[in-house]
Amino acid sequence: MARDKIALIGSGQIGGTLAHLIGLKELGDVVMFDIAEGIPQGKSLDIAQSSPVDGFDAKLTGANSYEALEGARVCIVTAGIPRKPGMSRDDLLSINLKVMEQVGAGIKKYAPDAFVICITNPLDAMVWALQKASGMPAKKVVGMAGVLDSSRFRYFLADEFDVSVEDVTAFVLGGHGDSMVPLVKYSTVAGIPLPDLVKMGWTSQARIDEIVDRTRNGGAEIVNLLKTGSAFYAPAASAIAMAESYLRDKKRVLPCAAYLNGEFGVKDMYVGVPVVIGARGVERIVEIELAGKDREAFDKSVGAVQGLIDACKKIAPDLL
Ligand code: APR
Protein backbone atom coordinates (compact mmCIF):
# COMPACT_ATOMS: atom_id res chain seq x y z
CA MET A 1 0.00 0.00 0.00
CA ALA A 2 1.33 3.43 -0.93
CA ARG A 3 2.15 5.71 1.95
CA ASP A 4 -0.38 8.40 2.89
CA LYS A 5 0.54 11.95 1.97
CA ILE A 6 0.24 14.63 4.63
CA ALA A 7 0.44 18.30 3.68
CA LEU A 8 1.60 20.89 6.19
CA ILE A 9 0.47 24.37 5.22
CA GLY A 10 2.75 26.60 7.22
CA SER A 11 6.29 25.43 7.91
CA GLY A 12 7.14 27.50 10.95
CA GLN A 13 7.69 26.24 14.51
CA ILE A 14 4.60 24.01 14.63
CA GLY A 15 4.95 22.93 10.98
CA GLY A 16 8.53 21.76 11.54
CA THR A 17 7.58 19.84 14.69
CA LEU A 18 4.64 18.23 12.86
CA ALA A 19 6.91 17.04 10.04
CA HIS A 20 9.38 15.54 12.50
CA LEU A 21 6.64 13.73 14.43
CA ILE A 22 5.04 12.39 11.23
CA GLY A 23 8.43 10.96 10.28
CA LEU A 24 9.15 9.45 13.69
CA LYS A 25 5.68 7.87 13.79
CA GLU A 26 5.84 6.77 10.14
CA LEU A 27 2.43 8.26 9.47
CA GLY A 28 3.20 8.99 5.83
CA ASP A 29 5.06 11.17 3.34
CA VAL A 30 5.18 14.87 4.08
CA VAL A 31 4.95 17.93 1.92
CA MET A 32 5.75 21.16 3.71
CA PHE A 33 4.32 24.33 2.18
CA ASP A 34 5.03 27.95 3.07
CA ILE A 35 5.13 31.36 1.42
CA ALA A 36 8.66 31.82 2.77
CA GLU A 37 11.07 30.49 0.16
CA GLY A 38 13.64 27.98 1.32
CA ILE A 39 12.10 27.33 4.76
CA PRO A 40 9.93 24.32 3.82
CA GLN A 41 12.70 22.98 1.56
CA GLY A 42 15.37 23.39 4.23
CA LYS A 43 13.33 21.94 7.09
CA SER A 44 12.10 18.96 5.10
CA LEU A 45 15.66 18.17 3.94
CA ASP A 46 16.97 18.46 7.50
CA ILE A 47 14.30 16.09 8.85
CA ALA A 48 14.79 13.68 5.91
CA GLN A 49 18.50 13.56 6.82
CA SER A 50 17.56 12.40 10.32
CA SER A 51 15.58 9.44 8.97
CA PRO A 52 18.52 7.01 8.56
CA VAL A 53 19.52 7.67 12.20
CA ASP A 54 16.01 7.21 13.54
CA GLY A 55 15.13 4.47 11.07
CA PHE A 56 11.98 5.80 9.48
CA ASP A 57 11.01 5.75 5.83
CA ALA A 58 9.21 8.83 4.59
CA LYS A 59 9.56 11.19 1.69
CA LEU A 60 9.77 14.79 2.90
CA THR A 61 9.64 17.68 0.46
CA GLY A 62 9.18 21.44 0.63
CA ALA A 63 7.21 23.69 -1.70
CA ASN A 64 6.04 27.25 -2.27
CA SER A 65 3.19 26.45 -4.62
CA TYR A 66 -0.18 24.96 -3.78
CA GLU A 67 0.08 22.30 -6.50
CA ALA A 68 2.27 20.38 -4.06
CA LEU A 69 -0.86 19.61 -2.00
CA GLU A 70 -2.26 17.36 -4.71
CA GLY A 71 -3.30 13.97 -3.35
CA ALA A 72 -2.90 14.86 0.34
CA ARG A 73 -5.12 12.79 2.66
CA VAL A 74 -4.58 15.17 5.55
CA CYS A 75 -3.80 18.90 5.52
CA ILE A 76 -2.64 20.56 8.74
CA VAL A 77 -2.84 24.33 8.65
CA THR A 78 -0.55 26.52 10.75
CA ALA A 79 -0.05 29.30 8.20
CA GLY A 80 -0.30 32.76 9.66
CA ILE A 81 1.40 34.72 12.34
CA PRO A 82 1.64 33.56 15.97
CA ARG A 83 0.94 35.60 19.07
CA LYS A 84 3.63 37.92 20.41
CA PRO A 85 3.82 38.88 24.12
CA GLY A 86 1.00 41.23 25.06
CA MET A 87 -0.99 40.26 21.97
CA SER A 88 -4.27 38.37 22.39
CA ARG A 89 -5.32 35.62 20.00
CA ASP A 90 -8.02 38.01 18.80
CA ASP A 91 -5.45 40.60 17.70
CA LEU A 92 -4.37 38.07 15.14
CA LEU A 93 -7.81 37.92 13.61
CA SER A 94 -7.62 40.20 10.61
CA ILE A 95 -4.15 39.08 9.46
CA ASN A 96 -4.84 35.39 9.77
CA LEU A 97 -8.32 35.66 8.24
CA LYS A 98 -6.73 36.70 4.93
CA VAL A 99 -4.34 33.78 5.20
CA MET A 100 -7.28 31.37 5.72
CA GLU A 101 -8.94 32.66 2.56
CA GLN A 102 -5.80 31.88 0.51
CA VAL A 103 -5.23 28.52 2.18
CA GLY A 104 -8.90 27.50 1.84
CA ALA A 105 -8.80 28.22 -1.90
CA GLY A 106 -5.57 26.23 -2.27
CA ILE A 107 -6.92 23.17 -0.45
CA LYS A 108 -10.21 23.32 -2.35
CA LYS A 109 -8.32 23.28 -5.66
CA TYR A 110 -5.70 20.63 -4.94
CA ALA A 111 -6.86 18.47 -2.01
CA PRO A 112 -10.67 18.70 -1.84
CA ASP A 113 -11.00 15.21 -0.29
CA ALA A 114 -8.50 15.76 2.52
CA PHE A 115 -9.19 15.82 6.24
CA VAL A 116 -8.24 19.33 7.30
CA ILE A 117 -6.96 20.24 10.76
CA CYS A 118 -6.62 23.94 11.51
CA ILE A 119 -4.27 25.18 14.24
CA THR A 120 -3.98 28.86 13.30
CA ASN A 121 -5.29 31.27 15.96
CA PRO A 122 -7.74 32.65 16.92
CA LEU A 123 -8.66 29.02 16.42
CA ASP A 124 -12.45 28.80 16.55
CA ALA A 125 -12.88 31.73 14.16
CA MET A 126 -10.06 30.65 11.83
CA VAL A 127 -11.35 27.09 11.40
CA TRP A 128 -14.81 28.54 10.67
CA ALA A 129 -13.29 30.85 8.02
CA LEU A 130 -11.21 28.01 6.56
CA GLN A 131 -14.27 25.80 6.16
CA LYS A 132 -16.19 28.61 4.47
CA ALA A 133 -13.25 29.52 2.22
CA SER A 134 -12.65 25.90 1.20
CA GLY A 135 -16.32 24.99 0.81
CA MET A 136 -15.45 21.51 2.07
CA PRO A 137 -17.87 19.36 4.13
CA ALA A 138 -17.85 20.60 7.73
CA LYS A 139 -17.11 17.12 9.10
CA LYS A 140 -13.83 17.10 7.15
CA VAL A 141 -12.62 20.42 8.62
CA VAL A 142 -11.78 20.59 12.33
CA GLY A 143 -9.82 22.78 14.68
CA MET A 144 -7.14 21.66 17.11
CA ALA A 145 -7.54 23.21 20.54
CA GLY A 146 -9.25 20.88 23.00
CA VAL A 147 -6.65 18.12 22.75
CA LEU A 148 -3.99 20.67 23.68
CA ASP A 149 -6.06 22.33 26.41
CA SER A 150 -6.96 18.98 27.96
CA SER A 151 -3.36 17.78 27.66
CA ARG A 152 -2.21 20.82 29.63
CA PHE A 153 -4.92 20.15 32.23
CA ARG A 154 -3.91 16.48 32.44
CA TYR A 155 -0.25 17.36 32.83
CA PHE A 156 -0.91 19.82 35.68
CA LEU A 157 -3.21 17.31 37.42
CA ALA A 158 -0.71 14.44 37.09
CA ASP A 159 1.94 16.71 38.58
CA GLU A 160 -0.37 17.70 41.44
CA PHE A 161 -1.21 14.08 42.32
CA ASP A 162 2.22 12.65 41.44
CA VAL A 163 0.67 10.00 39.20
CA SER A 164 1.22 9.02 35.57
CA VAL A 165 -0.17 11.37 32.94
CA GLU A 166 -1.56 8.24 31.28
CA ASP A 167 -4.04 7.71 34.10
CA VAL A 168 -5.41 11.25 34.09
CA THR A 169 -8.29 12.12 31.79
CA ALA A 170 -9.61 15.61 31.32
CA PHE A 171 -12.65 17.09 29.70
CA VAL A 172 -12.69 20.59 28.26
CA LEU A 173 -15.36 22.36 26.26
CA GLY A 174 -15.84 25.73 24.62
CA GLY A 175 -13.60 28.07 22.70
CA HIS A 176 -9.82 28.01 22.78
CA GLY A 177 -8.75 30.80 25.04
CA ASP A 178 -9.56 32.39 28.32
CA SER A 179 -13.20 31.31 28.10
CA MET A 180 -12.52 27.58 27.73
CA VAL A 181 -14.57 25.38 30.07
CA PRO A 182 -12.69 22.59 31.86
CA LEU A 183 -15.35 20.21 33.21
CA VAL A 184 -14.00 19.15 36.58
CA LYS A 185 -16.64 16.51 37.28
CA TYR A 186 -15.79 14.65 34.05
CA SER A 187 -12.03 14.83 34.65
CA THR A 188 -10.60 11.82 36.43
CA VAL A 189 -7.65 9.91 37.81
CA ALA A 190 -8.13 6.28 36.76
CA GLY A 191 -11.86 6.94 36.49
CA ILE A 192 -12.21 8.70 39.86
CA PRO A 193 -13.76 12.16 39.23
CA LEU A 194 -11.89 15.18 40.63
CA PRO A 195 -14.66 16.13 43.11
CA ASP A 196 -14.27 12.65 44.68
CA LEU A 197 -10.51 13.14 44.90
CA VAL A 198 -11.13 16.39 46.79
CA LYS A 199 -13.39 14.44 49.21
CA MET A 200 -10.68 11.80 49.56
CA GLY A 201 -8.24 14.51 50.62
CA TRP A 202 -5.93 14.15 47.59
CA THR A 203 -6.21 17.86 46.94
CA SER A 204 -8.38 20.86 47.75
CA GLN A 205 -10.99 22.68 45.71
CA ALA A 206 -8.77 25.77 45.89
CA ARG A 207 -5.89 23.86 44.23
CA ILE A 208 -8.21 22.54 41.52
CA ASP A 209 -9.38 26.11 40.87
CA GLU A 210 -5.74 27.22 40.53
CA ILE A 211 -5.01 24.40 38.09
CA VAL A 212 -8.10 25.24 36.02
CA ASP A 213 -6.90 28.83 35.89
CA ARG A 214 -3.39 27.83 34.87
CA THR A 215 -4.87 25.61 32.13
CA ARG A 216 -6.95 28.50 30.78
CA ASN A 217 -3.81 30.63 30.60
CA GLY A 218 -1.60 27.78 29.42
CA GLY A 219 -0.86 29.38 26.05
CA ALA A 220 -0.09 32.82 27.49
CA GLU A 221 2.26 31.31 30.10
CA ILE A 222 4.41 29.86 27.30
CA VAL A 223 4.23 33.04 25.17
CA ASN A 224 5.49 35.08 28.14
CA LEU A 225 8.38 32.69 28.71
CA LEU A 226 9.44 32.33 25.07
CA LYS A 227 9.03 36.02 24.24
CA THR A 228 9.57 35.31 20.53
CA GLY A 229 6.62 33.09 19.64
CA SER A 230 4.03 30.70 20.99
CA ALA A 231 3.92 27.05 22.04
CA PHE A 232 4.73 24.49 19.38
CA TYR A 233 5.67 21.06 20.76
CA ALA A 234 2.36 20.32 22.51
CA PRO A 235 0.19 21.89 19.77
CA ALA A 236 1.96 19.74 17.16
CA ALA A 237 1.60 16.55 19.23
CA SER A 238 -2.11 17.30 19.68
CA ALA A 239 -2.78 17.73 15.96
CA ILE A 240 -0.89 14.50 15.24
CA ALA A 241 -3.25 12.60 17.59
CA MET A 242 -6.18 13.89 15.54
CA ALA A 243 -4.54 13.07 12.19
CA GLU A 244 -3.67 9.57 13.40
CA SER A 245 -7.24 8.91 14.50
CA TYR A 246 -8.44 9.83 11.00
CA LEU A 247 -5.77 7.96 9.03
CA ARG A 248 -6.00 4.79 11.13
CA ASP A 249 -9.79 5.05 11.63
CA LYS A 250 -9.19 4.79 15.37
CA LYS A 251 -12.45 6.56 16.27
CA ARG A 252 -10.86 8.29 19.23
CA VAL A 253 -13.04 10.57 21.34
CA LEU A 254 -11.19 13.87 21.31
CA PRO A 255 -12.18 17.42 22.17
CA CYS A 256 -11.95 19.41 18.94
CA ALA A 257 -13.33 22.62 17.49
CA ALA A 258 -16.16 21.09 15.45
CA TYR A 259 -18.91 22.57 13.32
CA LEU A 260 -22.16 22.68 15.30
CA ASN A 261 -25.48 22.73 13.53
CA GLY A 262 -27.88 22.79 16.45
CA GLU A 263 -25.91 20.54 18.83
CA PHE A 264 -25.46 22.13 22.27
CA GLY A 265 -27.99 24.76 21.06
CA VAL A 266 -25.34 26.29 18.76
CA LYS A 267 -25.72 26.87 15.02
CA ASP A 268 -23.22 27.63 12.22
CA MET A 269 -20.25 27.91 14.55
CA TYR A 270 -17.11 26.02 15.43
CA VAL A 271 -16.78 25.40 19.17
CA GLY A 272 -14.75 22.92 21.21
CA VAL A 273 -16.77 19.77 21.96
CA PRO A 274 -15.93 16.08 22.26
CA VAL A 275 -16.12 14.32 18.89
CA VAL A 276 -15.37 10.90 17.44
CA ILE A 277 -12.71 11.12 14.72
CA GLY A 278 -12.55 8.24 12.25
CA ALA A 279 -12.13 7.58 8.54
CA ARG A 280 -15.20 9.69 7.73
CA GLY A 281 -13.85 12.70 9.61
CA VAL A 282 -15.97 13.95 12.50
CA GLU A 283 -18.22 10.91 12.79
CA ARG A 284 -20.16 11.94 15.88
CA ILE A 285 -20.54 14.86 18.22
CA VAL A 286 -20.76 13.78 21.85
CA GLU A 287 -23.56 15.95 23.15
CA ILE A 288 -23.49 15.81 26.93
CA GLU A 289 -26.10 17.54 29.05
CA LEU A 290 -24.93 20.86 30.45
CA ALA A 291 -26.60 22.55 33.39
CA GLY A 292 -26.02 25.29 35.95
CA LYS A 293 -22.57 26.85 36.10
CA ASP A 294 -21.20 24.63 33.31
CA ARG A 295 -23.97 25.74 30.92
CA GLU A 296 -23.35 29.35 31.90
CA ALA A 297 -19.61 29.05 31.27
CA PHE A 298 -20.20 27.26 27.96
CA ASP A 299 -22.66 29.95 26.79
CA LYS A 300 -20.15 32.64 27.73
CA SER A 301 -17.47 30.87 25.74
CA VAL A 302 -19.80 30.50 22.74
CA GLY A 303 -20.51 34.23 23.03
CA ALA A 304 -16.79 34.99 22.82
CA VAL A 305 -16.42 32.83 19.70
CA GLN A 306 -19.53 34.43 18.18
CA GLY A 307 -17.90 37.85 18.66
CA LEU A 308 -14.86 36.72 16.65
CA ILE A 309 -16.99 35.21 13.89
CA ASP A 310 -19.02 38.42 13.66
CA ALA A 311 -15.75 40.34 13.29
CA CYS A 312 -14.71 37.95 10.47
CA LYS A 313 -18.05 38.47 8.72
CA LYS A 314 -17.51 42.22 8.84
CA ILE A 315 -14.01 42.00 7.38
CA ALA A 316 -14.88 39.37 4.75
CA PRO A 317 -18.62 39.42 3.97
CA ASP A 318 -18.04 37.24 0.89
CA LEU A 319 -17.09 34.26 3.08
CA LEU A 320 -20.71 33.45 3.98
N1 APR B 1 0.54 31.03 3.36
C1 APR B 1 1.39 30.07 3.81
N2 APR B 1 2.17 30.21 4.88
C2 APR B 1 2.13 31.39 5.51
C3 APR B 1 1.28 32.44 5.11
C4 APR B 1 0.47 32.22 3.97
N3 APR B 1 -0.35 33.16 3.52
N4 APR B 1 1.47 33.47 5.97
C5 APR B 1 2.39 33.09 6.86
N5 APR B 1 2.80 31.84 6.58
C6 APR B 1 3.79 31.02 7.27
C7 APR B 1 4.98 31.82 7.79
O1 APR B 1 5.91 32.06 6.73
C8 APR B 1 5.53 30.89 8.86
O2 APR B 1 6.55 30.03 8.37
O3 APR B 1 3.23 30.45 8.43
C9 APR B 1 4.32 30.04 9.26
C10 APR B 1 3.91 30.23 10.71
O4 APR B 1 4.92 29.74 11.50
P1 APR B 1 5.37 30.42 12.88
O5 APR B 1 5.40 31.90 12.69
O6 APR B 1 6.59 29.73 13.35
O7 APR B 1 4.12 30.10 13.83
P2 APR B 1 3.81 28.76 14.66
O8 APR B 1 4.43 28.86 16.01
O9 APR B 1 4.10 27.58 13.84
O10 APR B 1 2.23 28.93 14.88
C11 APR B 1 1.34 28.91 13.78
O11 APR B 1 -0.54 28.25 15.10
O12 APR B 1 -0.86 28.10 17.42
C12 APR B 1 -1.07 28.86 16.27
O13 APR B 1 -1.07 31.10 17.15
C13 APR B 1 -0.36 30.18 16.37
O14 APR B 1 -1.48 31.15 14.51
C14 APR B 1 -0.27 30.56 14.93
C15 APR B 1 -0.07 29.22 14.20
Question: Outline of this structure?
Answer:
The protein contains 11 helices and 14 strands. By secondary structure, the protein is an alpha/beta fold.
Descriptive notes:
The protein is α/β, with parallel strands linked by helices and 320 residues long. It has 11 helices and 14 strands. The strands form 4 sheets. It has a 6-stranded parallel sheet. It has a 3-stranded antiparallel sheet with strand order 7-10-11. α1 crosses α10. Bound molecules: adenosine-5-diphosphoribose. Residues 9-15, 34-36, 39, 78-83, 96, 99, 102, 119-121, 229-230, 232, 235 line the site of adenosine-5-diphosphoribose.
What is the strand content? 15-25%
Helix content: 40-55%
Uncertain ranges: none
Distinct ligands: adenosine-5-diphosphoribose
| Rg (C-alpha, Å) | 19 Å
Largest sheet: 6 strands, parallel
* Average of pLDDT: 94
The coarse overall form would be: globular
Q: Please work out how many helical segments DSSP would assign.
A: 11
Strand arrangement across the biggest beta sheet: 3-2-1-4-5-6
List SSEs in N-to-C order: EHEHHEEHEHEHEEEEEHHHHEEEH
Distance between the termini: 40 Å
Class by SSE composition: alpha/beta
Number of strands: 14
